Amino acid sequence: MSELPPTYPLSQELRDLLIQKLGILGKENVVLQQSLREQKTQTAAQTEDLFLELLEVADALEALLDYLENNPNPSPEFIERLPRSIAAVNRKFLSVLGKRQLLPIELTSTEPDFNLCRVIDREERTDVPDQTITKIVRRGFRWGEKILRPTEVITAKVESNLDDHIN
Questions:
Q1: Spatial separation of the C-alpha atoms in residues 72 and 78, rounded to whole Å
Q2: Can you tell me the distance from the alpha carbon of 20 to that of 23, in angstroms, rounded to the nearest whole number?
Q3: What is the SS3 assignment for 149?
Q4: If you compute the radius of gyration of the chain from its CA atoms, what whole number of angstroms results?
Q5: Helix (H) or strand (E) holding 153
Q6: Domain co-membership, 65 together with 133
Q7: Are residues 48 and 124 located together in one domain of the fold?
Q8: Residues 71 and 123 placed together within one structural domain of the fold
Q9: Does the pLDDT at position 167 exceed 60?
Q10: How far apart are CA 105 and CA 138, in angstroms?
Q11: Which among 7, 92, 109, 150 is least surrounded, fewest beta carbons within 10 Å?
């Protein structure tokens, strides 16, 4: 003898309400799928724009490299312009990043802010106070409020003289 699943009687009012709710869910599902398609299209367009801008940076670097490869003894004028040319490429690259809210971290103090900096080395110095930033090794970047990469720094280390403490 097989058991039949239990049946639950639904009033016409409850049945109509369920049908209405299912209709609303179906419409919301269609709207969400359309929104997702639009977001994917927008993301693809933004990614394409980013790649095109990065290709401009790559083209500028490639032009410099091609010139150096084809001119083993570059002119003094070229050598004189080279730092400005590289700086222009760097500005273009930073501009591409800036358009996407990826900005260099600007340090406002000579002492490291450990929310923004990572000390990667210390050097003995007597001309500056202990913990003073003596060199920025690698620039840090923030993306909106998030620190994407902290600034890597070297700080001063004042050597303590044990002889001074003993006497």
A1: 12
A2: 5
A3: strand
A4: 31
A5: strand 151-157
A6: no
A7: no
A8: no
A9: no
A10: 11
A11: 7
| Gap between the Cα atoms of 82 and 75, Å rounded | 11
pLDDT of residue 4: 81
Kindly report, residue by residue over 4-36, the tens digit of the pLDDT: 888 888 889 999 999 999 999 999 999 999 999
**Tokens 């002889």 sit on residue:** 163
CATH number of the domain that residue 149 is part of: 2.30.22.10
**Range of the structural domain that residue 26 is part of:** 16-100
Give the bridge partners for 133, in sequence order. 155
Reading the block at residue 4, the tokens are 């039949």
State how many domains the chain has.
2
User: Which residues, other chains included, contact 128 with Cβ-Cβ below 8 Å and sequence gap of 6+?
Assistant: 110, 134, 156
Q: State the Cα–Cα distance between residues 149 and 136, nearest whole angstrom.
A: 13
Token pair recorded at residue 117:
């900096």
